[in-house]
């Protein structure tokens, strides 16, 4: 007799990009330059935004939603 079962092994869960909640990888809070949404990012992204701001430049960070909207507008012309 054969028994059917479901074996789900999702593997290790990793957060690939920025998110709305702090995680082990994304522990630094940054605000989006366009919508001011609070986003948690990794160390490298935080350093990139922080160095630009302390140099006197505008905040270069855009959240995923604003970056997508900006790209769509740029393509339209």
Overview of this structure, please?
32% of the residues lie in helices and 10% in strands. With 77 residues, it is an alpha+beta fold. It has a domain at 28-76. It has a two-stranded antiparallel sheet. The chain starts with 27 loop residues before the first strand and ends with a helix.
Number of DSSP E strands: 2
Average predicted confidence as pLDDT: 86
Poorly predicted tracts of residues = none
Please report the number of helical segments: 2
Based on CA atoms alone, the radius of gyration comes out at 19 Å
Q: Determine the structural class based on helices, strands and strand pairing.
A: alpha+beta
* Percent of residues in helices: 25-40%
Which properties best describe this structure?
77 residues, alpha+beta
List the helices and strands and how they pair.
Layout: E1 28-31, E2 38-41, H1 43-54, H2 64-76
Antiparallel strand pairs: 1-2
How is this structure best summarized?
This protein is α+β, with helices and mostly antiparallel strands and 77 residues long. The chain has helices spanning 43-54, 64-76; strands spanning 28-31, 38-41.
